[in-house]
Design a protein that fits this description.
- It comes from Actinoplanes utahensis.
- Keywords: Decarboxylase, Lyase, Pyridoxal phosphate.
- GO terms for molecular function: aromatic-L-amino-acid decarboxylase activity; pyridoxal phosphate binding.
- This protein is of the alpha/beta class.
- The chain has two domains: about 240 residues, 3-Layer(aba) Sandwich (Aspartate Aminotransferase, domain 2), CATH 3.40.640.10; about 100 residues, Aspartate Aminotransferase, domain 1 (Alpha-Beta Complex), CATH 3.90.1150.
- It contains 14 helices and eleven strands.
- The strands form two sheets. A seven-stranded mixed beta sheet has the order 1-7-6-5-4-2-3, sandwiched between helices. A four-stranded antiparallel beta sheet has the order 8-9-11-10.
- Helix 12 crosses helix 14 and helix 13 packs across helix 14.
- The protein is globular, with a radius of gyration of 23 Å.
- The chain binds pyridoxal-5'-phosphate.
- The site of pyridoxal-5'-phosphate (PLP) has 14 residues, from helix 6.
């Protein structure tokens, strides 16, 4: 054994204690750490030949890299939709590494059973039924990819083509219809060989990002009975608008289509009694994407994908080999997603659900919604600031009477908060997205005061 491995093995309890103490100090300073420091170039270091042992590596990380790391786990990082890590999720994540299970298959470990239990809990939390099976993937992009891949297979079978065996060339073009699709849907279509152009944007309602269902019906009508994929959006990133899932579902009587719902973060509306109606109908979708490293507040990277057609999913993703278990009634996870070997991502989610339950997570969701409303109300009082949509859930999308990139920079430079720019209906704007369990009303006020200061 290498001398540092021997030494580290002997000193393991102390090394983990030191790492734990350091992590505690990082988390204790999260509220004061610059939320998004400007990246300072770190001079390259050569590949270590002998290494420095864990203690040496930790010291070097603290010196060279940690100072530039963001406070994205903290309460005022409002860029993208970022979330954080609850205490239980963090504990579960640590143990994921300690146990280092390969979550790909069911032999030799009960780890896959824990994933099944976690998926079942999530299914219930999002109001899905037992006919939805699920699996963990690395993020909503992968979840959308899996849903669209199974949808592509479904189209093939309707037209007598086994796409998984024969390839997309045997099927020809596929059509994907969506109102305001997330960029990851285009990416997934590129990966899947359908091509980005397969997505035909459908008109949205006036002043909305939600799809105009009559325009969707007209687009389906124009396909002359050829099956398609409809991507419904349950929470758009700019204004968190929701397609009317029930109205879309009603079109299934007339037109053949696979309904995939991108509910990456909007799915969490199901937890808020005042907002659950926004995802009514989710349970009827053929496939559903929900991100977990956003609003569930587990560390990166985790999402879940649900589908009602496990047979088609196995046709796409099965990975049979002589040395691997065969596909069974309860397929191994490597028959269900793009990955074969994979970390037991479910453990962090299991921990946070076991620790706080649906109720605890409901308070995270309703707290973020309240913070967004609070910030939105204060922003409307700043001269020249305009909300570009009502605050529907957890995001405030607004325009400012000044240069957006300069303001984004000034916010980041303050160290107090981080917001990301966007363009909404051709207008440069900012987004403040709330999804972190640590965020309090005082944080919303602090961001509002910062913007007041920078804009007046
Ligand atoms: C974030 C997001 C995605 C992509 O999620 P990743 O976790 O970054 O892969 C897809 N769709 C929507 C609506 C999102 O908000």
């Amino acid at each position: 054994m290498h001398k540092h491995l021997t030494g580290d093995l002997a000193a393991l309890p102390d090394l983990l204690q030191t790492t734990r103490d350091y992590a505690v100090s990082v988390l204790a300073g999260l509220g004061e750490r610059p939320v998004a420091p400007p990246p300072v170039p770190v001079p390259a270091a050569p590949l270590p030949l002998v290494g420095a042992g864990t203690a040496g590596a930790l010291a070097e990380f603290q010196r060279r890299w940690a100072p530039g790391f963001s406070g994205s786990a903290g309460p005022r990082y409002l860029g993208f939709v970022t979330g954080g890590a609850t205490p239980a999720a963090l504990a579960g994540d640590w143990l994921t590494g300690a146990f280092d299970q390969n979550g790909s298959n069911r032999s030799g470990s009960s780890a896959a059973g824990l994933e099944d239990e976690t998926v079942a809990w999530l299914r219930e939390m999002f109001g899905l039924g037992p006919e939805h099976s699920g699996a963990f993937v690395s993020g909503a992009t992968m979840s959308n990819l899996v849903g669209l891949a199974v949808g592509r297979e479904w189209i093939g079978r309707r037209l007598g083509v086994d796409v998984a065996r024969q390839g997309l060339a045997a099927l020809g073009e596929i059509t994907v219809l969506s109102g305001t699709a997330h960029s990851s849907v285009y990416k997934a279509l590129s990966i899947l060989g359908a091509g980005r152009d397969a997505l035909r944007p459908v008109a949205t309602l006036p002043d909305r990002e939600a799809v105009d269902v009559s325009a969707l019906a007209a687009a389906l009508e124009s396909l002359d009975g050829r099956p398609a994929i409809v991507v419904a959006n349950a929470g758009t990133v700019n204004t968190v608008d929701f397609d009317d899932l029930r109205a879309i579902l009603a079109l299934r009587d007339r037109y053949p289509f696979w309904l995939h719902v991108d509910a990456a973060f909007g799915g969490f509306a199901a937890l808020s009694p005042d907002h659950a109606h926004l995802v009514d109908g989710l349970t009827e979708a053929d496939s559903v994407c929900v991100d977990l490293h956003k609003w569930l507040n587990v560390p990166y990277d985790a999402a879940v994908q649900f589908t009602r057609h496990r047979d088609l999913q196995v046709a796409v993703f099965q990975n049979s080999a002589a040395y691997l278990p065969a596909v069974s009634g309860d397929p191994d996870f490597f028959h269900l997603t793009p990955e074969n070997s994979r970390r037991l991502r479910a453990l962090a989610a299991w921990f946070t659900l076991a620790a706080y339950g649906a109720d605890g997570h409901r308070t995270i969701v309703t707290g973020a919604i309240a913070a967004a409303h609070r910030l939105g109300a204060r922003l409307t009082a700043i001269p020249g600031v305009r909300l570009l949509s009502p605050v529907r859930l957890n995001v405030v999308c607004f325009s400012v009477p000044t240069d957006v990139p300069a303001l984004v920079q000034a916010i980041a430079d303050s160290g107090e908060a981080f917001l990301t720019p966007t363009v909404y209906r051709g207008e440069p704007a900012l987004r403040a997205a709330f999804s972190n369990w640590r965020t309090t009303p005082a944080d919303a006020d602090r961001v509002a005061a910062l913007l007041e200061r920078l804009l007046t």
